[in-house]
Amino acid sequence: MLSITSQYLARYRRLTAGDRPDVLLPVTGAQRRFLLVRSLDPSGRPDVVPMFFAFPAGTIDPERLRAAARGLAARHTALRSRPAVVRGTPVLRVADPDVDVTRPPVVPGERPADTLRRALASWDARGPALRLFLVRDEERAEDVLAVALDHAVCDGRSLALIVDELGAAYTGEPTAPRPGPEETEAELAAYRAAVLRQLAAEERAQTPEAAAYWADRLRAVHTHAPPPRPARAPEGALPDAAITSGAAQARLPARDAGVPFPALLDACRSAARALYGPDHVVPLGYPWGGRPAGAEAVVGCFLNTLVFPADTGHGSDPEATADAWWDDLDRADVPFDAVVTAVRAAGSPWTGGLDGLLTVDDDSRRPPLTLAGVEGREVHVDGRPVRGPFAVSVTQGAEIDLRMVWDRAVLDDDTAHRAFDALTHALRPCGHSAL
Who has the most CB within 10 Å: 4, 228, 290, 331? Predict the structure, then answer.
């Protein structure tokens, strides 16, 4: 039987037979997952990755920023493409670069964070993959810039490149020409080659042995999050600015070599136990991977989502977790949809839902956004919709920045804060602050 990736490639080749292959591009397994999740969302809501930077008021020239962003999109195929499903086949449709700097209208009484949440919530999946929103914070005398991307065209490794190149383009001449046709075609060819290399790696990884491994590894997994509760706005909030998610943050002392990933998985197991109770096997997702060997460092979405079966009946056992995790990484190229298919074929009722997500970043990999010598201060805008019951993000550097967000339609704040306490305790915390 053909693997999921083989079937996808066959459909893609039939779809593009006789057409220019650079108009409709194939997608990676990671992109397939995002497009599938979007198609299952009743509102068609995509996963959006925003970065927020605060600058002194009046220092950003919107036209210069717009020109820089359009030049950036012109240089990177993924940023000027739009995810689509054509005749049942997920693809990227290449388009002209179209990026604007939008100043969302402010509703009387709104805070800047409310305005940005509302602007991001109105995201039209048919529009450009890269968008910029600029909001004035009169109280702090700052302008907050949101650099937002459709997750289907970028992963964590792309963000540093985007921030660096956007700042460089802004600093250059505002009338500088966009990349010429030769440069654009060369980047498109490099992007397409990288995706095809990734799909080839995924195709090779989908062996009967790998399917049997994941079927056994995840055989006891079930999603345990309670069903969504009726949504209600926090007391005193504007109806259009309802806070749909909660957040908590802690800064922990850094270790010399950082926190080992298995220890982070065990800490998330502690949080899951506080959320869902003992004696469950909770599916936790985390991104892993990178560009395929030999591929250029193109902007795109290449990180597969792996699933860790967190047994909440067991305590922390870093050595056992590490051994199992290394075995998982040997099969990390099997795409998420193929893993779910293998598990279900073995008789599991699991449909691929995740009870939690874990992302880990190195703060040295993403420089601050600098526009004409002015360094933006990265800020958080919490309260945005969360794709899943809870998500943990860890940034390792001079300190460990630990954050957890949760969907208030699924988890109540008190339970979530207990889970965050369990998470920080597992990592030897020195206190945390709720946001």
Answer: 4
Q: Is 115 exposed, middle or buried (0-12, 13-18, 19+ CB in 10 A)?
A: buried
For the record, the structure tokens of 52 come out as 């927020």
- Name 53's bridge partners: 145, 378
**Whether residue 293 has pLDDT greater than 70:** yes
Residue 54 clears pLDDT 70, i.e. is over it: yes
Give the burial string for 403-427 (b: 16+ CB within 10 Å, else e). bbbbbbbbbeeebbbebbbbbbebb
Q: Which residues contact 294 (CB under 8 A, 6 or more apart)?
A: 197
Residue 419: its H or E element: helix 413-426
* Gap between the Cα atoms of 178 and 417, Å rounded: 49
Which of 378, 423, 379 shows the shortest CA–CA distance to 402?
A: 423
Model pLDDT for residues 181-201, shown as the tens digit of each residue? 888 899 999 999 999 999 999
Handedness of CA 156, 158, 160, 166 (dihedral sign): negative
Closest CA to 24 of 74, 73, 95, 76: 95
CA distance 266 to 400: 16
Q: Is 301 exposed, middle or buried (0-12, 13-18, 19+ CB in 10 A)?
A: buried
Residues in the chain, overall count: 435
Q: What residues have CB less than 8 Å from 308, skipping those under 6 apart?
A: 265, 268, 283, 284, 285, 286, 325, 328, 358
Residue type, 192: R
Q: Per residue, what are the HEC states of 297-357?
A: CCCCCCCEEEEEEEECCCCCCHHHHHHHHHHHHCCCCCCHHHHHHHHHHCCCCCCCCCCEE
Residues 366 and 154 sit within 8 Å (Cβ to Cβ): no
Distance CA 197, CA 155 (A): 17
Global confidence as pTM: 0.90
The CA R_g of the chain, rounded to the nearest whole Å, is 22
Distance CA 90, CA 3 (A): 16
For the purposes of burial, counting CB atoms within 10 Å of the CB of 141, is it exposed (0-12), middle (13-18) or buried (19 or more)?
exposed
DSSP-derived secondary structure for 32-65: HHHHHHHHHSTT-PPPEEEEEEEEETT---HHHH
The residue among 292, 293, 314, 310 whose CA lies nearest residue 302 is 292
